Amino acid sequence: MGLAVLAVSLCTIQPALASSYLNLNVSDHAARVSLGTDLTSSGLVGSVGYFTHSARGSVADAGLSLVANANPGGHAIWVGLGARALFVDASLVHKSATALGLGASINTTWIGYNRIGVGGHVYYAPAVTSFGMARSYLEYEARVEYYLLRHGRVYLAYRHIGVSYAGTPTLTLDSGLDVGFRISF
After folding, report:
1. pLDDT beyond 90 at 46
2. CA 71, CA 68: separation in Å to the nearest integer?
3. What is the percentage of the chain residues whose pLDDT exceeds 70?
């Protein structure tokens, strides 16, 4: 319920010069969709997302990040620092958990050719920010992007999502290549 309220709030909040995005990616057995928007003019970004794997489980998240150009005098390198509230359901072991993942993201384009970009993110929740039966959560992704439009890009990415519960080894919810697109509006 709380995730739905945040999603509606993100869609209705429109600060001056707000920028929003829709991100969708798929692989053979998994898909992820996320929606985000600028919450302030200083770079605070709110997002909601949902990942599902046909056999291994799902992850719902709501996040806040501060995103800024880490190289304002030169070629833009966009860096984000933030956190995601996570609800993880591992259907392999019929366990669910919540966690607070702390993380960072980076995104830039090729110097001299701004249609090719690279980026990625990592979010980690150690035992101290993992609740219930969860002991840890780790998600990371690395992407190569191609800007078809000024505000639209397609990409190929490698993604890994793993969760550890009390009494189980680390379970891999996803690990492999996916393709996707991200549009900004």
Report:
1. yes
2. 9
3. 90
Q: 146 versus 10: which is more confidently predicted? A: 146
pLDDT band at 28 (very low <50, low <70, confident <90, very high): very high
In this structure, how many other beta carbons lie within 10 angstroms of the beta carbon of residue 55?
9
Cβ distance 91 to 57 under 8 Å? yes
Residues 45, 38: Cα–Cα separation, whole Å: 4
CA dist 181 and 143 (Å) reads: 11
What is the chain's alpha carbon radius of gyration, rounded to the nearest angstrom?
17
Asked whether the beta carbons of 157 and 129 are under 8 A apart, the reply is no
Closest CA to 36 of 51, 24, 48, 53: 48
Alpha-carbon gap, residue 115 to 106, rounded angstroms = 16
pTM of the model: 0.88
